């Protein structure tokens, strides 16, 4: 992105074009309209999401109801997306107890594995019906 670009337009375009999203949840994740917008769009577009819970438990993620710049429609979208994310198996990381390098290796492996699965699913869905092929 460059100065003058519309942030949400770029975020939306990137999410629509991605195969797998990674959501890194932290204690202050729900305070960011950008993070919540991205998560909502990932969920609404049915993208595969790899949640990473950084020093936070999924059950602790909540939208603050009196949040500025969050109308009731957005609040509902964000709450629904968070609920969906809580129901996806993710990775957890406790910075006081765990090793960064091992965690990054596990996170990379999880993302790659999901990308491969999505590619395989896409390939199977787009494969022509073998019964309709003409013999050569």
From TrEMBL:
Residues 1-111 form the TIR domain. One of its GO terms (biological process) is signal transduction. SUPFAM superfamilies: Toll/Interleukin receptor TIR domain. Pfam families: TIR (PF01582). InterPro entries: TIR_dom, Toll_tir_struct_dom_sf. PANTHER family: COP1-INTERACTING PROTEIN-RELATED, TOLL-INTERLEUKIN-RESISTANCE (TIR) DOMAIN FAMILY PROTEIN. This is TIR domain-containing protein.
